[in-house]
Amino acid sequence: MTATPTTPSAPESPAGGEDLLALDRQVCFALAVASRSVIALYRPHLEPMGITHPQYLVMLALWERSPLSVKQLSGLLQLDPGTLSPLLKRLEAIGYVTRGRDPRDERALAVELTPQGRALREQAVRVPPAIMERLGMSAEELGLLHRSLTRVIAAAAP
C-alpha cells in the first residue's frame, strides 16, 4: 500500500479570526523590512560624506553635544561599547572625531568632534529633507511614526 501525499492544510486560526501567525500580520516583520528599507535610502546621501548609517547616528549625537564619553554615546545610541568602539575608530581615522581621556574623569574616554567633523554637519543638514521627500511623507506624519516607534521601544525595553 502506498501513502497518499497530503497537501498542507491552511493554518488554523481562532474561531472566525485571521491567522495570528500570518507573516503579513507580524509587527516584527514590518519593523525589520521598514528598517532595512529606510536605512538603505540613507546610503546615497551618506556615501559622499564618507560615512555609514551607524556612523551618521554617532555624528548626530555629537552634533547635539560634544564632547561625550563613550558611555554616554553608548546610552544615547543604545549600542554596547563593543559595537560602538569600531565605529569611533573609523570616524577617528577619517578625521571626524578624536578620542582621548576625559579631563573630568581620567578613567573615561571622551569623544569630541574635530573641525572637519563639525563642518560635515553642513552637508548632513540636507539628509533629513531628502529622506522625507523620498518617502513622500510630511514632517507631521514622520513625527507620528516616531512617537509610535518610541512607545514600542519603551514597551519592549527590559
TrEMBL record:
GO terms for cellular component: cytoplasm. InterPro entries: ArsR-like_HTH (IPR011991), HTH_MarR-typ (IPR000835), MarR/SlyA-like (IPR039422), WH-like_DNA-bd_sf (IPR036388), WH_DNA-bd_sf (IPR036390). The keyword Metal-binding does not apply. It is found in: Cytoplasm. One of its GO terms (molecular function) is DNA-binding transcription factor activity. It comes from the Bacteria. Keywords: Cytoplasm, DNA-binding, Transcription, Transcription regulation. Residues 24-154 form the HTH marR-type domain. One of its GO terms (biological process) is response to stress. PANTHER family: ORGANIC HYDROPEROXIDE RESISTANCE TRANSCRIPTIONAL REGULATOR (PTHR33164:SF5), TRANSCRIPTIONAL REGULATOR, MARR FAMILY (PTHR33164). This is Transcriptional regulator, MarR family. It comes from Promicromonospora thailandica.
